[in-house]
Amino acid sequence: MAIKHFKTAEFDAAVAAAPLAMVDFWADWCGPCKMLSPVVEFIGSQYEGKVLVGKVNVDEEPELARRFGVMNIPTVVFLKNGQEIDRKVGVMPPQVFTGVLDANL
């Protein structure tokens, strides 16, 4: 499976172990999140083995959302060696996300 659904307890270790990660903060009730989901799935399959692509449900993991200061969803956070390097808020074309990944691989 290309997409990792994160729980708070495993998040830090998983992200620290990955040289590059893309994490989508979302919720079931969020329309724009549902629009972005196929993009995240596509990127997950395209970058499998190179980038850790994951999702965090903000309703189930509010502590992670607070820690990253997620105020609006969908928010996609990019982390390199465990440190945030970029973030995108809202629905955007796949090239916006892959551009960040390609520039940091």
From TrEMBL:
<dbReference type="InterPro" id="IPR013766">
    <property type="entry name" value="Thioredoxin_domain"/>
</dbReference>
<protein>
    <recommendedName>
        <fullName>Thioredoxin</fullName>
    </recommendedName>
</protein>
<dbReference type="Pfam" id="PF00085">
    <property type="entry name" value="Thioredoxin"/>
</dbReference>
<keyword id="KW-0676">Redox-active center</keyword>
<keyword id="KW-0813">Transport</keyword>
<dbReference type="InterPro" id="IPR017937">
    <property type="entry name" value="Thioredoxin_CS"/>
</dbReference>
<dbReference type="InterPro" id="IPR036249">
    <property type="entry name" value="Thioredoxin-like_sf"/>
</dbReference>
<dbReference type="InterPro" id="IPR005746">
    <property type="entry name" value="Thioredoxin"/>
</dbReference>
<keyword id="KW-0249">Electron transport</keyword>
<keyword id="KW-1015">Disulfide bond</keyword>
<feature type="domain" description="Thioredoxin">
    <location>
        <begin position="1"/>
        <end position="105"/>
    </location>
</feature>
<comment type="similarity">
    <text>Belongs to the thioredoxin family.</text>
</comment>
